[in-house]
Every structure is written in C-alpha cells, then in structure tokens.
Amino acid sequence: MEIFGIGASELVFIILIAIIVMGPQQMKEAGKTIGHWMNRLSNSEIWKLVRETSNEISNLPRKWMREANMELWETEQELQKTIGPPQKKPLLSQSKPKSFQQPPPAATVEDAKPANETGEELSTPND
Fold first, then answer.
1. Domain assignment present for 38
2. HSE-up of 107 (CA within 13 Å, CB side)?
3. Position 1 pLDDT exceeds 70
4. pLDDT band for position 36 (50/70/90)?
5. What residue numbers bound the domain in which 61 lies?
6. What pTM was estimated for this model as a whole?
C-alpha cells in the first residue's frame, strides 16, 4: 500500500514522529481536523469530477479494444455478405457409406408397358 509514494512502514514512522512532537492531546485535535477536511474533500464536486475522470482514463484502453473489436466484427459481417454463406461440408456421420448403392435408373416411357389391376401387362396394338 502506497499513498503519495509513502509505504506502510514510512507512514508508521511519520505518525510516531507526529505523536512525539505534538503530544497525544494535540494529535487528537489534528486527527479530527484532518478527518473533517478529508470528509469535505471526498464529498466535494471537484473530487467527484476527479474520480470520474480517473475511471474514464483507466477504462479507456478497454473501451478502445471493444470499439476495435466491434469494427472488426462489422467488417467481417460485410465480407460474409459479399462472399455469401459458407459452404457446409457434410459431417462424417452424414456421408454416404462405401457400400451404399444408387437405385437403378427409372425406366423410360418407351420401356414401360401399362399393367392392369391384376398385375398383368396389357398388350399394345403394336405388339
């Protein structure tokens, strides 16, 4: 923990020196005065502005990265629209097995002979 470049051990040393120089009674009054001023500072409009500005500055790189990613995403979407939908490759489980055989081609109209309801072929006058 560092406050204004002062570490914890240095802060303890400063407080001990202050107690020795001021004495315990004056230190109590000084603590109240410092607390009063810090309370007024933390509730002031200037401190709120400083805190908001600090938050914006610390979040600025994250904000820029989000904007850059959004631009990249929009560019990618435009390219996808230009190129068209991606070609879907069949999954391995959906591909045809090697033993799969195509059905025989359908007979042409000339090869087919009409059949009656009993399944017998009707003879045509040309036969």
1. no
2. 6
3. no
4. very high
5. 43-85
6. 0.36
Query: CA 127 to CA 119: how far, in whole Å?
Result: 18
Does 32 reside within a domain?
no
Please state, for a pLDDT cut of 70, what percent of the chain lies above it.
63
Number of domains in the chain: 1
Q: Helix/strand/coil (H, E, C) string of the chain?
A: CCECCECHHHHHHHHHHHHHHHCHHHHHHHHHHHHHHHHHHHHCHHHHHHHHHHHHHHHHHHHHHHHHHHHHHHHHHHHHHHHCCCCCCCCHHHCCCCCCCCCCCCCCCCCCCCECCCCCECCCCCC
Q: Which residue is it, tokens 């401190």?
A: 47
Specify the length of the chain in residues. 127
Please say whether the beta carbons of 26 and 20 come within 8 A.
Answer: no
**Within a domain: 56:** yes
Residue 19: both structure tokens together: 């107690």
- For 65-117, what is each residue's pLDDT tens digit? 888 888 888 888 888 888 876 666 666 655 555 555 666 666 555 555 555 55
* Residue 63 lies inside a defined structural domain of this protein: yes
